[in-house]
Design goal:
The protein has 196 residues and is α+β, with helices and mostly antiparallel strands. It contains 6 helices and 7 strands, in the order H-H-E-H-H-E-H-H-E-E-E-E-E.
């Protein structure tokens, strides 16, 4: 009888403590959007990584999101989206969000990836004596780079930039339109494709 009273008392203290304003962080709309964006981005990035040749765990990913606009292929992207029934692309809010996010949060990536600071990548390749040999030895056989995805139609479609960098003459990247099919993302179209 005494243990049940103690348990009840501890439960009441726990409930009261969790209701105190200082004990809880308010959940903002921005935090809700970020967590939803991170959840969908994470599965998208995992499926995109499967398409690249890097068979290395954890896969190195640049900690700085790709943030360049799709110059030269913007009209083709809009045409592809139009064919899919996606009429509006709020480019202004997307561009603002891309510039706002200067570094990836770990919520966007699971344990299949390791975030590598962009300064580290830049410093390795700025020094001709280190370059890919040093990168391969100390970090991995290459690295991936992703933009912040923009999602459409209740997270059924996404536009994202993805690239794999794996050597002086080894790499591939493009702006990709992806479609979610059940639990996986599949590539529907790609634009501004490059390969070396």
């Amino acid at each position: 009888m005494m243990t049940s009273r103690i348990a009840l008392l501890l439960f009441v203290v726990y409930l009261l403590a969790s209701c105190l304003p200082s004990a809880r962080k308010p959940v903002t709309d921005e935090a809700k959007v970020d967590s939803l964006l991170a959840f969908h981005s994470r599965t998208l990035f995992e499926d995109l990584a499967e398409d690249f040749s890097l068979d290395y765990r954890p896969m190195p990913v640049s900690a700085k999101p790709y943030s360049q606009a799709p110059e030269g292929c913007y009209d083709a992207i809009l045409e592809s989206l139009d064919k899919l029934g996606i009429k509006e692309l709020d480019t202004l809010s997307w561009a603002i969000e891309m510039k706002r996010r200067t570094e990836w949060d770990s919520l966007f990536f699971g344990d299949k990836f390791k975030l590598v600071p962009d300064d580290t990548i830049r410093s390795i390749f700025a020094d001709d004596s280190r370059w890919w040999g040093y990168f391969n030895e100390h970090i991995g056989p290459g690295f991936l780079r992703f933009s912040l995805p923009i999602f459409f139609n209740d997270y059924h479609y996404a536009l994202v930039y993805a690239s794999e960098n794996c050597g002086g003459l080894c790499g591939y990247g493009a702006w990709m339109i992806m479609r979610r099919e059940e639990k996986h993302w599949v590539k529907v179209d790609e634009h501004c494709f490059w390969i070396s």
